[in-house]
Amino acid sequence: MIVKSFDERLDRMQWQPTAVPTREIVDGLLGEQPSVDLRGISVTLLGAILGILIGVGLKGMVMPGTLWGPGSGLMGVIVGTMSMAGLVLSIPLAVFGAVLHQRKPWLLPLSAMNLLMIVVILLS
């Protein structure tokens, strides 16, 4: 039964064992290479860079010997305030990115990578 239906299908397609594919079939198969979508890469990279900057700023706040570490004066206050503000804004940004990912698809990779980089640097 299976062989019969298989042979019937081959007969309907008019397939011949020595047939070679036509130029249109070969071009169609070779031309169907998926293109790389680089639209989300820049947003993800921006999130990673922001997360690294915030994480390094937060980590340097508690490490003696850094330019913005304990007892560094005005530089420590400026970098520490910016780092803390970045952390405080990153958490709601991640929540909004998860909630609004249907309407604003660029927000989720940005916020997820940002928060991931902050956590990775703080745990290292």
Automatic annotation (TrEMBL):
- Membrane-traversing stretches: 40-62, 74-100, 106-123
User: What does the UniProt keyword field contain?
Assistant: Membrane, Transmembrane, Transmembrane helix
The protein, known as:
Uncharacterized protein
Q: Which organism is this protein's natural source?
A: Parasedimentitalea marina
Is Transmembrane helix included in the keywords of this UniProt record? yes
